[in-house]
Amino acid sequence: MPRLLVLLLTLIPLATLAEPSHLRVQGSNTIGAALLPALVQGQLRAQQATAIEQQPGKLANETVITARDALGQPMRIDIAAHGSSTGFVALGRGEADLAAASRPVNDREARQLRALGDLRAAAAEQVIGLDGVAVIVHPDNPLPQLTTRQLAQIFSGQIQRWEQLGIAGGAIHLYARDDRS
Prior knowledge:
Layout: H1 2-18, E1 21-27, H2 29-32, H3 35-46, E2 50-56, E3 62-68, E4 74-81, H4 84-93, E5 98-100, H5 107-112, H6 148-156
Parallel strand pairs: 1-4, 1-5
Antiparallel strand pairs: 2-3, 3-4
């Protein structure tokens, strides 16, 4: 029996060498759908990784990238892009190593995840880009322009009808990002 235990203990390091290095990223579909896979592949190439392959994951907006590092060891990066909030939830559950977010962590998330450290600290966040917002009004709309203040009032719900902006037309219909982002 002691000999078997010694044999098993000597084989454990070999078993872990056979497992690929694994990084799990969850969160923003803005980042994860296309930008993050491209960044991961670029970083792998910069680190002289070989056999870089990208495959779809099990669900929509999921990607699996596999490669071999410069020493030939297998690597795997799983990306699940289902909204910024899902990244913070996955961090809390231990289901992700990194959260990709297209916004800062909110107060509730920061409180729930405080065991992981101060997620509002500069060291906890790496900005990889800034995005813009396009506000599009149909060309037949008689309103020639909207101010930034008016847009803020529309998106906050203070203004809900075109009549509040001085034109006829009824309810304002907003189409924006989903609540998970």
